[in-house]
Amino acid sequence: MGFNIIVCAKQVPDPEGPPSSFEVNEAERRVTARGIPPVINPFDENALEAAIRIKEATDAEITLLSVGKGLSKAVFLKAVAAGADSSLLVEGDDLDAALLDSFTTAHLLAGAITKSGKYDLILCGRQAADTNAGMVGLILAQLLDIPAITLAQKVEISGGKVVVERVLPDGYEVVEADLPALVTVSGEVGDLRYPSLQAIKAAKGLPQTILAEADLDLEISGLSRLETVALAAPSRERRCTLVDGDTPEETGKKLAQLLRQEKVI
Length: 265
Known about the structure:
The chain is of the alpha/beta class. It has two domains: 3-216, HUPs (Rossmann fold, 3-Layer(aba) Sandwich); 235-265, no CATH class. The chain contains six helices and 13 strands. A hairpin with a 4-residue loop joins strand 3 (22-25) and strand 4. Helix 2 packs across helix 5 (197-203) and helix 3 (102-116) crosses helix 4. The radius of gyration is 23 Å and the shape is globular.
């Protein structure tokens, strides 16, 4: 009997993009990325890498799942090529990531997972690179009524259980849970392997299912628990003070006095 893994992946603007490319729209209370390509959330890539390692040790099958608006087929094709077996995308004009809170997103993922059928393990990134909320995985586990383990640096399947090395501030602890279960994966797992060109070409033939919100028999209006009442860029004040002196020693002394006056030291 096969082992089924679902990896939840969010499409986000590339977090490595320059800060100047991100604009804060205070009127619409959202952040807009200009000229930055979409990527899979890096923590979700960690989750996919963890899934691939489990697949290499078992007969697991991996389904990559995402919810959103304007999902890039090329971005998910590359992720699937790294080692997944299929993808399931839930798309719709109302599914703009900027308008979905964690609670609504978890409901959409739960609906898609229920629709897709059997699963043994769900892997999510510890948080998303755009919001850093870190709540979707735990809410999803609650909706599906399955155990959840957070902040994994290693995930293995043993004796019908999931065994996780869970990151702590001063080390790690080993935790296990009955299956099915959900695990949120941290960056300590390691980066997602880079697929070969041959694998990317082969991935074009792998199954891809695209669903709409209506296919989930779910009404998302009214689900939101979070309201953004204001959003603004942080104000920055810059001052430049030139410190001079007749000798380097005098200049250094004046600088030290100035830094102490400004309570820097």
